[in-house]
UniProtKB/TrEMBL annotation:
Keywords: Signal. Residues 1-30 form the signal peptide. The keyword rRNA processing does not apply. It comes from the Bacteria. Gene3D superfamilies: Peptidase S8/S53 domain. InterPro entries: Peptidase_S8/S53_dom_sf, Sedolisin_dom, Tripeptidyl-peptidase_I. This is Peptidase S8. Residues 83-409 form the Peptidase S53 domain.
Length: 409
């Protein structure tokens, strides 16, 4: 039986940089409960409830309260809007505007968000992005087998769905989008949804969920994730050092997370490993079961190493999201759930993948990434599995996008 890393419903109060924790409370509270902010800090919570055994949890984190100092930084939940928007993300990762034409990106999540299309288009209208509707053929919302009878609605997974759709909109606004909603959060249902996404023509499939590793994972690889020429991105998890599945699959691009801040450098931005002493941060490490892919060359792990690349994930430096089913409008989100759809969309900007496993392209173009060299997500040996450094490291992989060259054949 799969061992699952379960969200506890814990509430954390984070520093602006996302590096220090001033208080942890309410272990038994609901997953989307808030915490009173402390001066200079932001409070956030996981949006998905603890899963049943054998299920996966979504990796979205929603900011629930902020102080005046954080508001000055630009993070003000339920205002219009706050957190990083499309222009910020395109600037941080040196990406072209108005990209994605001719490409189809799929989002795989569990359960249904009945407001998904309307909320996504409110986000797009706010930032001057083109509408993407079912009427125009740009947007499709289907069940795990591609049908129109959608699963039961979930206010928790709706937050994940809103985050995913908004990040695709931000990075690749001219792409078509397929939202495939699994009946439950079991790996078999989520995996079936991945197969459906590919069968419907998506060359880029984002998955922002995971659970503990299992000896069954290599079988799931064959059944659900082995799609040559399709960029399947998976968030590495929000529980800091440690490996989750399906991020550990050698057939996917495993996406870690960073704290992203503006600075006075030539790039105009800086990033560090996302981690808090509450035990939240980008997942990383050495798989217990999965074989090492030929294109991964680090020497401290004989099996598959997590992650490959990364993007912003720290909720204290989070992204703007619009959500009304289970939300009240504008909010700030983080978690490696933000990073996975960002990277899937970067692949879409770069064009149809040429490598059988598109993750291999990044390892052939390491100079075309922003190397993240500071921070850690815990303690480990060898240290690169949990510590940012020059070249490859576990929490951020090879780094974050610096244009499209690392995502092309």
């Amino acid at each position: 039986m799969r061992s699952i890393l379960r969200p506890t419903g814990r509430r954390a109060v984070l520093s602006l940089a996302g590096a220090a924790v001033l208080g942890v409370s309410g272990v038994a509270v609901a997953a989307n409960a808030g915490a009173a902010p402390t001066a200079g800090h932001a409070a956030w919570s996981r949006v998905c409830d603890a899963p049943a055994a054998g299920d996966a949890a979504c990796h979205a984190l929603r900011v629930t309260g902020v102080s005046e100092k954080v508001k000055a930084f630009g993070v003000t939940p339920n205002a219009t809007p706050s957190g990083f928007g499309p222009a910020d993300l395109l600037s941080a990762y040196n990406l072209p505007a108005n990209g994605g034409a001719g490409q189809t990106i799929a989002i795989v999540d569990a359960y249904n968000d009945p407001n998904a299309e309307a909320d996504m288009n409110t986000y797009r209208a706010q930032y001057g992005l083109p509408a993407c509707t079912s009427a125009s053929g740009c947007f499709k919302q289907v069940n795990q087998t591609g049908g129109s009878k959608l699963p039961r609605s979930s206010t928790s997974w709706a937050g994940e769905i809103s985050l995913d759709l908004d990040m695709v909109s931000a990075i690749a606004p001219n792409a078509h989008i397929i939202l495939v909603e699994a009946s439950t959060a079991s790996m078999t249902n989520l995996g079936t949804a991945v197969n459906t996404a590919v069968s419907m023509g998506a060359k880029f499939v984002s998955n922002s969920y995971g659970g503990g590793e299992s000896s069954a994972d290599t079988g799931y690889d064959t059944s659900y994730f082995n799609h040559p020429g399709v960029a399947i991105t998976v968030s590495s998890g929000d529980s800091a050092y440690g490996v989750q599945y399906p991020a550990a699959s050698p057939y996917v691009t495993s996406v870690g997370g960073t704290a992203l801040k503006r600075d006075s450098s030539t790039r105009g931005w800086s990033e560090s490993v996302w981690y808090t002493k509450a035990g939240e941060g980008a997942g990383s490490g050495c798989s217990a079961y999965e074989p090492k892919p030929s294109w991964q060359k680090d020497t401290g792990c004989a099996k598959r190493t997590v992650a490959d690349v990364s993007a912003v994930a720290d909720p204290a430096t989070g992204v703007a999201v619009y959500q009304t089913y289970g939300g009240t409008g504008w909010a700030v989100y983080g978690g490696t759930s933000a990073a996975s759809p960002i990277i899937a969309s970067v692949y879409a900007l770069a064009g149809t993948p040429s490598a059988a496993v598109p993750a291999a392209d990044a390892y052939a173009h390491t100079s075309a990434l922003n190397d993240v060299t500071t921070g850690n997500n815990g303690t480990c040996s060898p240290s690169y599995l949990c510590t940012g450094g020059t070249g490859y490291d576990g929490p951020t992989g090879l780094g974050t996008p610096n244009g499209l060259a690392a995502f092309t054949g």
